Amino acid sequence: MKKLTKMFSFSGDAKRAKFWQFVLFALVFWLAAAYVDETFLAPNLCLINEEWFCYLPGEVREGITLDKIASVLLIIPFFSILVRRLRDHLVSPYLALLAIPGSFALGAFLYFPAQELPLWVMIVCGVLFLPLLYWMLTKGKKKSKADD
Question: Which of 13, 42, 75, 127 could form a disulfide with 87 if both were Cys (CB 3.0 to 4.6 A apart)?
Answer without folding.
Answer: 13
